[in-house]
Each structure stands twice: as structure tokens, then as C-alpha cells.
Write a structure and sequence with these properties.
By secondary structure, the chain is mainly α. The protein contains six helices and four strands; from the N terminus they run ββαααβααβα. Helix 4 packs across helix 5.
Length: about 150
């Protein structure tokens, strides 16, 4: 797991991403940022995210620096209301946003989520209960859901 922190808060969490791809992604998303590795403060942030994976029901109290479109921000806010062990379909998320036809846009917002696990896009599944797309891989999505006690379909 990799984390990135800005002066405003946690701005990126990646799962299983190679170092060169991680750095390229950060440079693309934060072109004016100076990348600094190995700071002790980053270890504390990574530990907080790891604790959230271990105990998903806990609150994540650290500040977030979420950067995205207004629609993405709205989707991510809905995702943060899905309790551990529960899932929603992409269409249900769209309905909760008051935009029932925006299912694909919801899926795109999930794919653009910069904060794996902290913004639990892994809790969004197909309307028939199947696991679909996850930036960090379907096996990881399945494992996260199973850890939380959810029973996704194969």
C-alpha cells in the first residue's frame, strides 16, 4: 500500500501499484508537487489506512485532500456512507445522488477514486450482485468485501 499526503491531508492511497507507476500517477495528478519519500509522518498515515483495512468499521479521522469534479465529490460522499459489510449497486448510488441515469458516471467516479479503502468504492457492485471493475483488481475487491463480512457473488 502506498499513501500520499499534501499539506491539506491524505490525497492518495494505492494498493499494489509499482513504484514507477505510482510516481507517474502522482506527477500527473499533482504536477507542481515535490515528491518526498520516507518521511515518518507518511508512516503514520499509512498505518492509519492499514488499520482501516484491518477494522473497517472504525472512523477514519485524518483530514482528506480530495480532488475531483463536483460530481465525483458527490459520488465519493455517498460511498463513505456505505457501512462495512454492505454493498450498493452502481444504479443505487446514482439514485441516491438524484441522478438515476448516471450509472456509468458513477462507475467512472469509482474508478477515479484517489483514496482506495478510505473512500470505499470496493463496496459498489453490479445490480445483480456480481463484482465488477475495481482499479486495484477484482481479487482485492473480493478480499476486502469478505474481510468486511459481505458475500459478493462470484
Amino acid at each position: 500500500m502506498r499513501v500520499a499526503v499534501s499539506p491539506a491531508g491524505l490525497c492518495a492511497v494505492a494498493l499494489g501499484m509499482p513504484d514507477d507507476a505510482w510516481r507517474a500517477d502522482l506527477r500527473r495528478r499533482f504536477p507542481r508537487a515535490a515528491l518526498a519519500d520516507g518521511q515518518d509522518t507518511h508512516r503514520a498515515w499509512a498505518d492509519a489506512v492499514a488499520a482501516l483495512i484491518e477494522v473497517p468499521a472504525q472512523d477514519f479521522a485524518l483530514p482528506l485532500d480530495l480532488r475531483g469534479t463536483a460530481f465525483q465529490q458527490r459520488v465519493w460522499a455517498v460511498l463513505r456512507t456505505i457501512p462495512p459489510g454492505q454493498t450498493l449497486g452502481y444504479g443505487e448510488v446514482a439514485r441516491r445522488l438524484g441522478a438515476p441515469r448516471a450509472t456509468r458516471a458513477v462507475a467512472q467516479a469509482c474508478g477515479a477514486n484517489p483514496l482506495a479503502v478510505v473512500i470505499p468504492c470496493h463496496r459498489v457492485i453490479a445490480s445483480d450482485g456480481r463484482l465488477t471493475g475495481y482499479r486495484w483488481g477484482l481479487e482485492r475487491k473480493r478480499a476486502l468485501l469478505q474481510r468486511e463480512g459481505a458475500q459478493p457473488r462470484a
